[in-house]
Amino acid sequence: MEILLEELYKTDIHLDKFNFRKLFLEDTISYQINGITQSGKTKLVKNHLLGLKKHTYLYIDCSDIRIDIDILNKELSIFCNKNKINTLVLDNYIKNINIVNVPQLIICSETQYNFEFLKTVKLFPLDYEEFLAYEHKYDSTALNHFFQLGGFPSIHKINNDERIIYIQKTLKCSLEAMEFDILVLCAKMMAQKLSPFSIYERLKQTSKISKDKLYKSFESLGSKNYIHQLQKINHPKATKKIYLCDTSLRLAFTKDRHFGRRFENMIYLELLKSGKECFYDDSIDFYIPKNDEVILGMPFADERVLFKKMEAIEAFIFTYQVKKVSAITMSREETISHPLSLVEMIPFDIWAIGD
Predict the structure, then answer these.
(1) Which residues of 31-68 are buried (b: 16+ CB within 10 A; e: fewer)?
(2) Is 126-260 assigned to CATH 1.10.510.10?
């Protein structure tokens, strides 16, 4: 193992062009970086390491099959002390690897561990503003590309005819069989009400499955942020709406593209990354209590359609004293006169960047 550690220590790290993310790693802080597969964890830490002196860091990919964990646990601390390692990165961290006392420790994994001495940061797939770093033009074509490609940074290097299979294979390798089956079903039910029980009822028709195992797999997908659930306002026991970590999964797992649901999922992901607590209600896509605001996904709405929608949700607006209604569109921008609230149609690209 000492020979392997010496090899890893001497090996130069290479990184193709790095597009900066909104997350920045400081030299004096230890982290655990959590994110789904292909969200950019490895590139983020390697970019950080390249800003340090070569002899001060050690990068270990814990998925390397050459690693004997028992021997690693005996030798890693000794090796770090001997070589005065300031920054240790344990990528694809496995929980039975012992933590080593170094000035800066960075672990990367899908699962969040209870390490109170590490600053926990979540790395999501690219949001729209981060996606723009990969684009040559910041016009309507950029938004169209975002809809087509989604937020996986690596997808930009994959040929167009290989992208669907690439996503399928990547997720199939990263997830357990039950998790993968659940994710496929969630992709088909994107932006709709969906409970673990209804997933069980659907999947048991085609395969013999355990309800307990399915529930645990569903919970695991949520804890690792492959899926997200949105609660109904003031109804915590009501069936939650399901959203995916990236809209590209809808295209990868089903022939039904359903633009409106993908658009709603994109809005949700922007709200998720902004840290704003939101809820849904009947005819209400997103309600943000802190802002007294309702957000509606209406990609191709015009003034007439929006007026009709406002009539349908007027009772909700009055009950919750909503001060602002934002209808997120593909391109239309307009302010509508309404006696109860400020009503605006805002293009997604302006809303996502401005917010």
Answers:
(1) bbbbbbbbbbbbbbbbbbbeeeeeeebbbbebeeeebe
(2) no
